[in-house]
Amino acid sequence: MARSDPFASYSRNWPSWQEATLKALSYSLAFAVAMPLAIMICVLPALFFARIYFFVGMERFLEYPVNVPLVFVANIPAAVRRDWIIRSTVWRVIYTGALAGSTILADVAITALFGEVRVTFFPWVFIFLVISTGSALTLKADAYWIGDKACQELDSSSGNDWRRDSSRLCRMAATDCVVHVILAVLFSAGVLSFLNLAVFSSSFDGAPAGFIDNDLLLVYAGIAFEISLLIGNRIVSRYPEFLVVAEIAKIRNGRRALLRTSPYDPLGARRRDIFMLARYVERASAKLERSISRDATFAPSVVLRAGAAELLRFLASRDSLDVNPPKKLDRNLKSLFALVVDTPSRSFYDNLAYEWKAFDESGRPAGQPDRSAPRRIEEFFLQYSQPSAASLQFLIQGSLAAIIVALALFGRVDVIDFVKTFIK
User: Fold this and answer.
1) Number of domains in the chain
2) 366 and 398, same domain (yes or no)
3) 32, 413, 416: which is closest to 204 by C-alpha?
4) Predicted confidence (pLDDT) per residue in 156-204, tens digit
């Protein structure tokens, strides 16, 4: 397929090599941005059907908490089981069809803008997203089911004016799963951009990017992948309540953190998990305030910040030196889950405000440190390493060195040419 040259209108007064370089740079960067942008725009209708599918699946899981298809479950009435199977299958088929059409449409858009590419969205991204869709609800449903049971327990002990709404929890779980699929979409788009620019750069012969050396295409391919990751990170940061739910489930289930803490810490890896939960709760509180006004403080957000402060007080107290945390910590975790996903009663709020010292004697917010949520790069190092400039420098340099070595071993980069180009 012949490619049109979108840069033909540039001035011809430049030397040919400078003009070719400018065209190649603009072309490759445009491709790096267009790949994730095209698939995200085209996949929006499919995400609408995905949310309905996840909502139906979460409704079913709250009533019948099994992670296997209902076809293999015998202790459910036949009529009920048939109804759930039909509803779930219909929305899954609709979503799968919309997803296939979305990936094909994204390929058409990329081909129209840049010509034929070696690695396309269909079928590779389509297959990956189908698998991701199937695993999203399995990974997240259990956490919301545990939280729903915790809300029922707290409701029964706090009064009869608790406004329970299971459909709200199902909508939240469905949105959480959709965000999971969006991250999979962006990750796959970044991988495809990287492969087309760095590994299969020969597919750009005849296009402006064909004038770029392979080592520079590697840099632009890395930029393409980083663009997708930054967009995904931005999306995740807009939903701190999902991080709160996931962290509470991890702490209550006793799952170990990715990195072990000091072997002399009786609390072990849970100390890091509880600390990160406090940070996520602070971000959820800030989001709640920003959704109304940036210049005011509201009682629900005050209670959330008091809950985060209570977790930090626990980590600094003698109670955290016990291998088995006290029952109060488990109740605090349940209470935080209820504040994030449900609408508790007034008596429940009053009890928490008293326990967490959220308000003073006059009913105003108690003096709490005005600690802003850490930046996301700082949060990464708080969770996985030491928040220092040396760690950041080591991570960046180590990643670049690993990528260059790997591509040099596979013959994709000439090290001598790369050094010469870098010096220039």
Assistant:
1) 3
2) no
3) 32
4) 776 666 777 778 899 999 999 999 999 999 888 888 888 887 776 655 5
